[in-house]
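#onboarding

Welcome to the new folks! Below is a worked example of what a typical request in this channel looks like: someone posts a single protein sequence, and someone else replies with the predicted structure as tokens. Don't worry about understanding the tokens yet, we'll cover that in week two.

Example request:
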Amino acid sequence: MKYFRYLIIIFLANACARVGRPTGGEKDVTPPKLLRMVPANETKNFKGKEIVLEFDEYVQIRDLMKNLLVSPPLKNQPLIVPGGIASKHFKIKFQDTLNPNTTYQINFGESIADFNENNKLKNLSLVFSTGPVIDSLSLKGKINLMHFDDKPKTISLGLYDANEFKDSLVFREKPYYVAIAGENGAFEFKFLKAGTYRIVALGDENHDYKYQQDKESIGFTDKIIKIPGDTLVNLKLFREIPPFSVEDISQQSANHVLVKFKGQPDSLKVAVKPAMKRQLRFVEKDEWHLWYQTAQDSIKLEIPLSKGRIKKYYRKRIKDIDSLQVRFLRKSRLSPGDSVVISGNMPLESIDSSKVQLLADSVAVAFGLQKLKKGLFKINFEKQTGKTYNLRILPKAVTGFTGKVNNDTLRTNFKVPKKDAFGKLILHLNNVQQKLLFVELIMNKKIVRKTPTQTGNDFVVEYLMPGTYTLRIIVDTNQNNLWDTGNYLRHIQPEQSIEPDKNIEIRANWDVDQALNLEELSK
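Example response:
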């Protein structure tokens, strides 16, 4: 009986100690509240080593690496104790000596939430000064993303003392003040001291407020920011082309060597030994391909790098490709503007058109073969809406770069839907300051149409498949029909890339007529 009483007491004690929400009743949707801060918020002449926080309910503080913002930043982030468990009381313990006569701001972002329902206390901000004054000046601005498929998870802004600023500073030291841009790109620095500053934005993947050129994006202005005085600044965030480097070299077959690299392909100059009469070199994204017709017993590559260094590669012959494999690059449903391209597991040397048959509803269709770069062939023919096409390539019609031919008959079918299955986009651009524009229509992160201005600043894009598109408007300053990124160390800004937030819905047999104000979108 005595043993049984002990069990009851232990059970009740555990039940009382458990943190939980009573069953029944309405769900709690109220975020926790900060009851007390010791010392009080906006304390002056702070000399302590820690700050105590007291909340009205049990909370957890999570994802501090992502959320905690201390400005000016510290060498070591403060410790938050207790860590990883729910509590009503927390201490912020500073591991660094704080600067004298400095106003500090600590923002917890979305890291604080109640224990039971995960209701978040967003952007709890604590301010204190180690001197007799709380600095109160501010600076606002907005980040415009230039040509991004995926937005950086965190965009940090940094202010540096203009009198001490050097370009190399962003690679090795934290800024004097920091801020985080919101979802819409807007940011604000608060509690600033009067002075002159330089501002830099980073797509800060590792939250260290330093620039990693090969992994992160950057935005800057050469203008000196005066506080007080300047109140608004806009920046373009872009990814640089990284410095040239060779990542990997491998022999893919007896006739093919592949070099993976980073940086500008113009910097890729390769010496190949032994010398070969017939070889094909081309770049595809971040890969350099070398094809040679006659297999070599061994091959040696020398690639000049920076500062006189040379990357060397040597490999003895490995097994040959067994046979030529031919592929068709095309969609199952084509628009009149789409292409049908023939490729292979090696560059193609020739195609015998007499062994190629193209039919539309069992009727022969006239076509031409056009050889493209990188050993591809394009089939040119008039595509008629509402037709189904059958393409057949007979054995030994296709010859690869090494002399191999296809041994089997190749077949593929594709359809061009009726005209009323497509939609049309009519786009009017107003308040255009630059006349050198082109427009990209994007679906699922792929550019499906690219068109220059046609009549004035109007664009008409026909034969669009139904779906959701995003729009990108490029100010093509150097008229190369490409978007050119910037360069931080050379102080080159990227070409303007304007991306409206609103998607474009294209429906079958429907015209979308839309006007855009470029002046407003560029702000």
